[in-house]
Amino acid sequence: NTLAITIGITLFLMLVIFMAYSVYNIRKNAKLKSFYKKLLWVGLGILFVLAISSKTVPEFHMFMSLVLINYIKAMYFSVVGFGFFYIGKGIYNKIKTIITKIKVRAA
Fold this sequence. Notes:
By secondary structure, the chain is mainly α. It has helices spanning 2-28, 30-56, 58-106. The chain starts with a helix and ends with a helix. The chain crosses the membrane at residues 6-27, 39-57, 63-87.
């Protein structure tokens, strides 16, 4: 039981660190930063419409709650995707640097 809890906490902390790394790299890139700011305003608009529609039209409120859930999933997967992109880019650059150092030594 203790082992399962330790593994769960470790995996959760790894996920938090990975998300922080992804957000850090997204914030360093100006184009991605402006893109995510626009998406943030879209999300706030969805929340605003969801708050207004809660009492007026229940069917529309259910639809907007599904839209919000899909919006959150899309944001999560885009951040994770960019995180994997930046990890792959870092690994590629390290391998490229090692190969050029080997070529320089050989010459």
